[in-house]
Amino acid sequence: MKFMGNKRLMVLLVGLICFFILMGLTLSGRTKFYWPEKFLKDSIAWTQSVFYRPAAGVAGFFEDVGKLKTIYDENQILKKRLTDYALATQQLNALEDQNKRYKEALEFTERQKQVSNYKYRIADVIAASPDPYNGTITVNLGEKDGIKPNMAVINVDGLLGRVLTVTEFTSNVQLLTDLSDTNNKAPAISATVKGKEYKSAEGQGSYGIIESYDKEKGLLVMNKVDQNDKLAVGDTVITSDIGKVFPSGIPVGTVVSREPGDFGITQKALIKPFADFRHIREVFIIEIPEVK
Predict the structure, then answer these.
(1) Statement: residue 42 has pLDDT above 80
(2) How far, in Å, CA of 109 to CA of 201, rounded?
(3) Alpha helices of 116-152 — where are they, by DSSP H?
(4) In sequence order, what are the beta bridge partners of 283?
(5) Mean pLDDT (the chain, rounded)
(6) Is the pTM of this model over 0.70?
(7) If you write DSSP's letter for every residue of 235-277 in order, what string do you get?
(8) Quick one: DSSP state of residue 176?
(9) The Rod shape-determining protein MreC beta-barrel core domain covers which part of the protein (predicted)?
(10) What sections of the chain are H helices per DSSP?
């Protein structure tokens, strides 16, 4: 009986298969169908759609996930390359800037050899005051390099200040921006005018003393200018060796104004410094050869 039941089931399945094949062949070449044929065709199509749409959706999902992973990997690679390029560009710009400064420093020292017998010791700034217009900077030369207090400090533009204190390996430099009437640590700077140099023996030429820095105006104040002095707006102010602190001939700045002094006996001049005190990288410490 069991065998007969299985045999009947097999016959039924074979019959259904043949029926569907026959229907497919019959319907494939016809354009007009009877309603049972339409019903059967729609039923088959609906059944196929029930299985096809989820399967297609799942397949599309995994395909999109694969594409998303590929795009993410590509973006990571591009991001790393962009970071490497930006870092390399930054390093290149820094090296080019440093090379330019060193070239200017070399040209400066070569020019100075022609006008004086001073020795210029180049030093790197290793620390600075947070306030760009106040305080000191620290450089990487000290006692072991022959640096002493009160040595003049300059850059390729002009006078920056003087060595204030010295340790074995470093020195603190007091900038001109730290000059003030109440700062007893800041020595006055004897100054004259290029082309109108003061000659003490003859008592002629332009002369004054730079004693303070006007932080609001960003200008140096040169006092004790004689009323008959020929100093004029636009003149270049340089150091004079009368004060015995700074060597002579160091460019300081340009005269921007001249006006009566505090007591009306002498006059004062406001000077725009040549040096930029905001971005100091390298400096020169001037060593004057000892007279034997």
Answers:
(1) no
(2) 30
(3) none
(4) 123
(5) 76
(6) no
(7) PEEEE-GGGSSSPTT-EEEEEEEEEE-SSSSSEEEEEEESS-S
(8) G
(9) 125-287
(10) 2-28, 35-115
